[in-house]
Amino acid sequence: MTAAAAQLDVMVPSACVLKQVTKETPDTFTLTVARENGNGENAFAPGQFSMLWVFGVGELPISISGDPSRHEELVYTVRSVGKATHALVSQKPGTEIGVRGPFGNGWPFAAARGHDVIIVAGGIGLAPLRPMIYEVFRNRAEYGRLVILYGARSPRELLYRKELAAWARQPETQVLVTVDYGGIGWHGHVGVVTTLFKYARLHPARSVAMICGPEIMMRFVTRQLQEHGLQEQNIYLSMERNMKCAAGFCGHCQYGKHFICKDGPVFSYAEIGQLLDKYEL
Amino acid sequence: MATRAQTPRAPRKKREPSPTRTSPRVNAELTSKGNGSQPKPNSGNASGKAAPVSKSVRTNQRPALITPEQFEKLIATLITDGFDVIGPCVRDGAITYEPVKSVRDLPAGWGDEQEPARYRLKKSDSPAFFAYSLGAQSWKPYLHPAEVRLFAGEKQDSAFHILNNEDTARSRVFLGVRACELAAIQSQDRVLLGDKYRDPIYAARRESAFIIAVQCSHAAATCFCSSLGTGPKVSDGFDLLLSELVDKDGHRFVIEAGTDRGMGLLARLDAKPSPEADLAAVESAVASARQQQRKLDTTGLKEFLYENFDHPHWDKVAARCLSCANCTMACPTCFCTTVDDATDVTGTHAERWRRWDSCFTQSFSYIHGGSVRTSAKARYRQWMTHKLAAWIDQFGSSGCVGCGRCITWCPAAIDLTEEVRAMREGGVRADA
Amino acid sequence: MQTLERIIEEHPFFEGLDHGFMDLVLGCATNVRFGKDTYIFKEGDTANTFYLIRQGNVALEIFAPQRKPIIVATLGEGEILGWSWLLPPYHWKFHAHVLQDTRAIALDGKCLRKKCEENHDLGYEVLKRFAGIVAQRLESTRFQLLDVFSAQK
Questions:
Q1: Cross-strand bridge partners of residue A211
Q2: Which A residues, 79 through 108, put their C-beta within 8 Å of a C-beta on chain C?
Q3: Which of B12, B334, C44, C101 has the most neighbouring CB atoms within 10 Å?
Q4: Which chains touch B (3 or more CB pairs under 8 A)?
Q5: How far apart are CA B248 and CA B261, in angstroms?
Q6: Main-chain dihedrals φ then ψ at residue A175, nearest 5 degrees
Q7: Interchain CB contacts (distance < 8 Å): A and C
Q8: CA dist., res. C127 & res. B239, Å (int)
Q9: Does C87 map to a domain?
Q10: What's this model's pTM, rounded to 2 decimal places?
Q11: Into how many domains does chain C fold?
Q12: How far is CA B94 from CA A104, B82, B334, C141, in A?
């Protein structure tokens, strides 16, 4: 695709066939979408997102949650919380949905190579981190230890449970899962995600941390990581704000001087740490 | 109370082919930034950050002198060449930029009085067409339309296709662009053309626009372009530049070209070289416009605003601010938009429209669960901090050009130059 | 006893405690084991002990009529279980439900209370350490109460 054509296309979605819808939790679904041309030209980086359009209903920024090495499909995990997300997860396989993107910078996987990777996810925040986990396993020798800390509201709201269990069996990998509200039949941890740190075997000096979840959770987690001795520039967060265009034109996603759509969504704590505690920024 | 600013009507959507696409006689090269007379190899500015808008390389031709009759011929020639000429008109008690066919449509003798929350037109006996300071609304609606269809789609069973959305906007002449307005256009260029992506709708309109700038001879009470370095003197970014003179020697214009196509047009007017005395008169008028201005101290303003997120004065502004969004609608650089999706009654035809939005609305910052900026304080702070501080980090210049429209059209008479001053002085306003 | 001593000395909770105090603490310590699905203590029981968990997983539970027991937190390796022994009326506020076979060191709270009363320097050291744990748990609880993952906000 030429640069000029790409520019003309930026506001216009491509029609892509929805291949599969899988229920992950009572309100969260994983959508598999066939790619227009699975030739790697429109490859995506872990942590990037697309704008998904339901014909005539609306468009949403949705993180890509699939394997970056699979070029024939795009995978998204969507939580149904409003009109447009509900319409999106209710589409029948075979229907075409509009896809723009991928947009954004993604996780700094190249910079993370040679390091231990600490993944801290909360709720649906595991979705944009999953491509990064795939990236580590696909290039296992390039990375040190992988520590995944994941917190969700309750056991039934945990995403990718089978995969979490499979990842936990991999060498040089530690997976710790907790829920805010346990119940009978749940024999895992109960408590917020920060309570997992005392069980995690971390080597802060050689680690890069990547965090995604509600902003309050990311602030708590960042403080913990700093207490453990991680450097500001080695802590990365994926941010969310209202977004209409994803190309820097609509102005909605501004966060201080940053446009989350094109400068982010991933920022290091060194870049945005001073903004995180600003109310109504 | 002031006349309320009105958004000019949406551009007419005629299905005629754009004449400049095929046979514009004046359509020499014009870069997307519209800033130079030199041919640019990369007029598309395809990628990367926009280069700072460079100074025009002036033509060697001397400024010329034209009469009102030749000015009329200029307008007629442009119309013959297929342009829609947009220029100042009196409408609804304000100067607005509308299609004009002749100098008779121009606001001869009309001046404006602008103050915080006040706008009045005043007629004089002067034959001057450009006696007003600047229009109520800027040229923004013609380049970055208040509403525009991004695309339409047709659905058939489970599939859909996007209908070809060719921009039917005609090539336009902007007649009477002031220095601050040129700076505003260049500012929007950096937002919509110069960054990672390019807005094709803006690009098409911008590239086909022929700009006739006009030097200011006086300033409104709300003007502060000299504080931002954007005016009052027009120095680049135009195809033609007019300076209107009315004195004992009569009504006339000093005219100069800034681009080859401007020069081409000028050549067709049989204009004589301008006398030195007239050039001096233009300089002195611009200098007097500079003298009349209010001031905004921009020294260290970016850092000051970043450091004063919790300044008590934000609460004082918020107590007056109505969150009406007038300032953002009237601002020539504010670019924010939202989108609306709709279908026809059958659900098989869908359209997506883009409309101006404002950071003063509650919905602007909505994410699942609620809005980020719920208070008027947060929204005013966002607007001002973006305009005067973050814009510099984002696009290399202040987002403010000093046109003063946000002051004139604020129904609560909030004046950002005063608010900055009050903050710098410790947040206590004389009237607070 | 040598092992027990080393475990206690190396535990962060007792870090920096001087030898005299450490001996007093050791005098109150015993090794204990709890099988899966047993209860270490139950709500309302008299609280005279606290535990340093060496291995396993214990849930703090509370129940309400017509509801399944609610787990408010789980405690695992290295964590301190129980502070109700420290302040009157010395009653447990939750059930301690063993989720996995658990090994722990039990410390006799009644004995330690007495020693703390007799020696306020020791009392201050013990209270300071428990205050840290209480503050941490309170912070986690507040964060938990925020219910940040809830769809309804």
A1: A120, A237
A2: 79, 81
A3: B334
A4: A, C
A5: 33
A6: -120, 120
A7: 67
A8: 80
A9: yes
A10: 0.87
A11: 1
A12: 44, 28, 21, 61
For B9-116, list the strands marked E by DSSP: 64-66, 84-91, 94-99, 110-115
Closest listed residue to residue B184, CA positions, set B53, B374, B14, B17:
B53
Whether pLDDT at B314 is above 50: yes
**Interval B76-127: pLDDT, tens:** 999 999 999 999 999 999 999 999 999 999 999 999 999 999 999 999 999 9
| Contact of B291 with B255, CB cutoff 8 Å | no
| Total length of chain B | 432
End-to-end Cα distance, chain A? 38
Chain A CB contacts of C146 under 8 Å are 216
Q: Is the pLDDT of residue A27 over 90?
A: yes
The number of beta carbons lying within 10 Å of the beta carbon of residue B309 is 17
Q: Provide the CATH number for the domain formed by A109-238 in this structure.
A: 3.40.50.80
Q: CATH number of the domain at C127, please.
A: 2.60.120.10
Q: Where are the domains of chain A?
A: 3-103, 109-238
Per-residue pLDDT tens for B65-76? 999 999 999 999
Alpha carbon A107 to its chain's center: 9
Same fold? A3-103, A109-238: no
Give chain C positions within 8 Å (CB) of A198.
Answer: 78-79
User: Both tokens of residue B416?
Assistant: 């950002």
B374–A98 CB contact, under 8 Å: no
* Cβ atoms within 10 Å of B412's Cβ, excluding its own: 15
Q: What's the pLDDT tens digit per position in B120-158?
A: 999 999 999 999 999 999 999 999 999 999 999 999 999
3-state secondary structure B326-383: HHHHHCCCCCCEEEEEEECCCCCEEEEEEEECCCCCCHHHEECCEECCCCHHHHHHHH
Provide φ and ψ at A32, rounded to 5°: -110, 125
A135 to chain B, any CB pair closer than 8 A? The answer is no
A41: confidence class by pLDDT, cuts 50, 70, 90:
low
Among A156, A174, A189, most C C-beta atoms within 10 A, so best to mutate, is A189
Structure tokens at A3: 């640069």
3-class secondary structure, A267: strand
Residue of A87, A96, A28, A113 whose CA lies nearest to A63: A28
Helix axis angle for B376-385 and B416-424, nearest 10°, is: 100
What ranges do the domains of chain B cover?
19-291, 301-424
Is residue B154 within 8 Å of B160, Cβ to Cβ?
yes
Minimal Cα–Cα distance from C107 to chain A, Å?
22
Residues of chain B with Cβ-Cβ distance to C149 below 8 Å are: none
Between strands A116-122 and A146-152, the pairing is parallel
Over 60: is that where the pLDDT of A99 sits? Answer: yes
Output the six-digit token pair for C143.
Answer: 């964060």
- B154: which 2 tokens? 């047709």
The model's pLDDT over C42-66, given as tens digits with 9 standing for 90+, comes to: 999 999 999 999 999 999 998 888 7
pLDDT, residue A182, reads 82
Q: Which fold has domain A3-103?
A: Elongation Factor Tu (Ef-tu); domain 3 (2.40.30)
Instruction: For residue B298, count other CB atoms closer than 10 A to its CB.
Output: 18
Question: Residue C129: which residues within 8 A CB-CB, separation 6 or more?
Answer: C13, C14
Residue from the list B341, B386, B390 with its beta carbon closest to the beta carbon of A57:
B341
Full domain range(s) for residue C17: 2-135
In a domain, C127, yes or no: yes
β-strand pairing of A14-25 with A96-103: antiparallel
Question: What residues have CB less than 8 Å from A153, skipping those under 6 apart?
Answer: A123, A179, A180, A181, C147, C149, C150
Q: Residue B275, Cβ neighbours under 10 Å: how many? A: 14
Question: How far is the C-alpha of A75 from the C-alpha of A262, rounded, in Å?
Answer: 21
